[in-house]
Amino acid sequence: MKLRTAASAVVVGLFASPFALGAQTTHDHTSSADCVKMASSSGDHANMDHAAHMALMQKCQSALPTQPGQAAFGAISEIVRMLEADSTTDWSRVNIEALRQHLIDMDDVLMHAAVVQRTVPGGLAMEVTGTGRTAGAIKRMAMNHTKMLDQEGEYHAMAKEIANGAQITVTASDARTVARIRGLGFAGLMTEGDHHAPHHLAIARGENPHSR
Fold first, then answer.
1. Vertex 102, ends 99 and 103: CA angle to 5°?
2. Quick one: 114 and 206 in the same domain?
3. Are 121 and 201 contained in the same domain?
4. Are 182 and 119 in contact, with CB atoms under 8 Å apart?
5. Complete DSSP assignment for 87-133
6. Tens of pLDDT along 94-113?
């Protein structure tokens, strides 16, 4: 009974102590409230102690959320930070709005397009259509992506415009790749290739192939 009482006292003491787990680390008196206050306040940049501010930022890295809350916002934020960190960035050419429009196209094509898929010898044929802005997004994005797939060599891919979108055929010569094409379908094939991230950076820099 005495042992149980003593153990209970230890547990109570831990939660009551200012040094309890989650309140702060052994050598760090920075609280979550300090971090939230720092994140939400613009501060007096002219008079602040910048060294102390940077130290607090480093301590708060693990105490604040890391997700931007929305994928397109996160993609744009990442590109902006890269452009700002690059001393060679030509800001007279930068066009973040073009990147935003491209990300809207991506959303339209993946989330709002109608896709009819049918098996063909060696792969898959897909009719991708939409109305309004989605039809234009399909023609801009799916057509260009199909060209990139074909150039990368693993697939033979071709596309042609139709009234409300595009007709896309992707095939391969070996059975395993054919099975993968059919398993991926339109949405999966749209994610294939390593060109997406460099393409987004190029658009932001004002080198938009879709505008040509």
1. 90
2. yes
3. yes
4. yes
5. TT--TTT--HHHHHHHHHHHHHHHHH-EEEEEEETTEEEEEEE-STH
6. 999 999 999 999 999 999 99
Which pLDDT score is estimated for 64?
64
Q: Which residue has the tokens 């102390």?
A: 52
pLDDT > 70 in the chain, percent: 70
Q: How many domains does the chain have?
A: 2
**In what side-by-side order are the strands of the sheet with 123-129?**
114-120, 123-129, 165-171, 156-162
What pLDDT is stored for residue 51 in this prediction?
72
Give yes or no: residues 14 and 108 share one domain: no
Record the tokens describing residue 146, joined without a space. 């199909």
Helix axes 196-204, 71-85, angle to 10 degrees: 60
Rounded to the nearest angstrom, the gap between the alpha carbon of residue 14 and the centroid of all alpha carbons in its chain is 41
